[in-house]
Amino acid sequence: MDLFSLSWTALCTAVADLPDEDFEQPSGCTGWLVRDLVCHLVIDAQDILITLATPADAEPTVDAVTYWHLVDTPTGEDPLDALIPRLAAAYGEPRLLKFHFDDVGSAAGRAAGLADPAALVSTRDEVLTVGDYLSAYVLEATLHHLDLIAHLPSTTEPPAETLAAARASLERIAGTPFPAGLSDRTALLVGTGRRPPTDAETTALGALAGRLPLILG
Questions:
Q1: Closest among 123, 144, 137 to 165, alpha carbons compared
Q2: Three-state secondary structure string covering the chain
Q3: Among 33, 5, 6, residue whose Cα is nearest residue 147
Q4: CA nearest neighbour of 206 among 174, 166, 184
Q5: Burial class (CB in 10 A: 0-12, 13-18, 19+), 210
Q6: Closest CA to 11 of 162, 183, 216
Q7: Mind listing the pLDDT tens digit of every residue in the chain (217 residues)?
Q8: How far apart are CA 146 and CA 84, in angstroms?
Q9: pTM of the model
């Protein structure tokens, strides 16, 4: 719960601190500008609110790790992916998009802080505890924070604690650790295909390199 709050607050703060001109810069999500990513984060915040308000009365079917499943590399043909840039452009001014994300993002953060970690909730046709759901979201928030600042070097990095936690989650999903010589940031970027590994990194990764990238869905 604390790690979720740390990662989510850091992400919300990073968006709030963006100057208007940065919204037209590319993000770490292929084909999306920063404004498109922030629009996606509005939907993420709504998903958190919806999930926390959807109690379940069945046994858990997934946990913080098995919540994630590996999918094929996106082709850009998903209707929602195509819709996001149009929605983002409809805001017109960055301040309106920032206001909307601050509004729902803050609400999502408050709702998470008030939720019972042991309570069961339902999302994506699965059941899991609130604690596991928010733990899974540390990975989502941290990766999108890295996406946000991919081409904005002056923007604040995700907290070290959440980078380490996100790396640990990705290693559990992969079923094997990443080389200790790779930083948490590098492990996350290379592991999820956000950038290709260098020759040295490929050598260090060994057999794991052939299984990358791990595309999470």
A1: 137
A2: CHHHHHHHHHHHHHHHCCCHHHHHCECCCCCCEHHHHHHHHHHHHHHHHHHHCCECCCCCCCCCCCCCCECCCCCCCCHHHHHHHHHHHHCCCHHHHHHHHHHHHHHHHHHHHHCCCCCEEEECCEEEEHHHHHHHHHHHHHHHHHHHCCCCCCCCCCCHHHHHHHHHHHHHHHCCCCCCCCCHHHHHHHHCCCCCCCHHHHHHHHHHHHHCCCCEC
A3: 33
A4: 174
A5: exposed
A6: 162
A7: 799 999 999 999 999 999 999 999 999 998 999 999 999 999 999 999 999 999 999 999 999 999 999 987 766 667 777 899 999 999 999 999 999 999 999 999 999 999 999 999 999 999 999 999 999 999 999 999 999 999 998 789 999 999 999 999 999 999 999 999 999 999 999 999 999 999 999 999 999 999 999 999 8
A8: 19
A9: 0.95
| CB-based burial label for 87 (10 Å; 0-12, 13-18, 19+) | middle
- C-beta atoms surrounding 120 within 10 Å: 18
Place of tokens 């590098």: 186
CA distances 169 to 184, 186, 198, Å, are 11, 14, 23
208: its two tokens: 């794991």
